[in-house]
Amino acid sequence: MPATRPLPSTVFATDQAAGEARFEAWRDSISVIFDVAPLAREGLDSFQASVNASHLGNLLIGDLSFGEQQFSRTRARAARDGLDHYLVQWYRSGGFVGQHGDGQDMQVRPGDITVLELDRTLRTFARPSQVLSLIMPRALVDEAFAGPPSGLHGTVLRMETALCGLLSDHLASLHRRLPAIAVADAPAVTQATAQMLAACLRPSRHTQAQAREALHGVTLERIQRHIGRNLGAPLGPDTLCRTFGISRSRLYRLFEQQGGVAHYVQQQRLLRAFHTLANPANQRLRVAEIAARTGFTSEAHFSRAFRAAFGVAPRDARAVGAPAHAAAGSAAPSAEYANWVRGL
Fold first, then answer.
1. What is the separation, in whole angstroms, between the first and last Cα of the chain?
2. CA torsion 156→147→138→153, rounded to 10°?
3. Three-class DSSP category at 21
4. Structure letter (DSSP) for residue 115
5. What is the pLDDT of the chain when averaged over all its residues?
6. Considering only CA atoms, which of 200, 184, 177 is closest in space to residue 115?
7. What is the CB-side half-sphere exposure of residue 236 using CA atoms within 13 A?
8. Is 288 exposed, middle or buried (0-12, 13-18, 19+ CB in 10 A)?
9. What is the spatial distance between Cα 213 and Cα 194, in angstroms, rounded to a whole number?
């Protein structure tokens, strides 16, 4: 099979500069989108900022960390640079206060998601923050909304709302999966993300139907993460349905491709048990103790299931030793972030 091409990516960090030049390096880096200014001259020599960005063709994803500062886009600036994109920001920590459009106040707190239109004005005062940022061309978003949406500039989805939770789960999943996304997969990932954005910002029968596959994937991954964190606890269908507020029929549909929810849970428990047994650091743990820790109430049932899955008895798995970690692949090719933004 031909090798799949990884997504282009680029990294920026102020560690490459010294003293007050750190902020100037950041100013140059972010100037493609914002004019920035320090809130105070004190402490600029220790200012920190970084960007780790990936290019999916019609979507840029940036994992940003930065210190306190002012961000702005004036009418003159917007007219001059001609950017006509949507900027979606999930403030995983930090936040800001400020104004958008014609002097409308806005406040973003940790966990909130905000949407900005880069052809509109903005002035904000940000605290030190960690942000996952998406930049999307207007045509892509308009298509997902089935027409140009009105009033998106300055929209804030609050952390405590269900729609913010759904969208942040999707963004977190997308961010985790970036290293495994190939260039050939990028258009489908981009479309699903735009549809998810539309479904959460403007819930309607149309946008939710468009985003159904993305919603399906988010819910499935949430349940899978819960299972992975709680393998020693009861994980029957009734328990999972109560935890996630879904019906049995929907739970079964979600896990249809995994051979069913009971099969998936048992496979995860067996994999966890195998890696625990194979790790030399766990030599003192008895097989029965490992079985109990991974949710098996019967050691005999555990041994039968383990042998059926791996072809060896649990005690023989200790001879395997700790699994070797795959060598790290080469870094994805770098690219110029500013050119990416202008080229969207």
1. 31
2. -30
3. helix
4. E
5. 84
6. 200
7. 4
8. middle
9. 12
Average pLDDT of the residues in 161-187? 90
Name 135's bridge partners: 60, 87
Phi, psi of 201 (to 5 degrees): -85, -35
Rg (CA), the chain: 24
CB atoms within 10 A of CB 105: 9
Picking from 151, 137, 70, 138, the residue whose alpha carbon sits closest to that of residue 104 is: 151
> ∠ CA(82), CA(85), CA(90), 5° rounding?
135
Cα separation values, 246 from 168, 216, 314, 315, 333, Å:
19, 12, 35, 39, 42
CA-CA distance, 86 to 50, in Å (whole number)?
Answer: 21
β-bridge partners, 36: 71
Name the β-bridge partners of 123.
72, 99
Q: What is the pLDDT of residues 228-268, one digit of tens each?
A: 889 999 999 999 999 988 899 989 988 887 788 999 899 88
Across-strand partners of 73? 122
**AA identity, residue 182:** A
Residues 273 and 307: beta-carbon distance below 8 Å: no
Of 132 and 199, the one with more pLDDT:
132
Sheet holding 85-93: strands in order across?
9-13, 49-55, 60-66, 129-137, 85-93, 113-117, 155-157
Residue 184 to residue 41: CA distance in whole angstroms: 46
Vertex 217 angle, CA 213 and 219, to 5°? 115
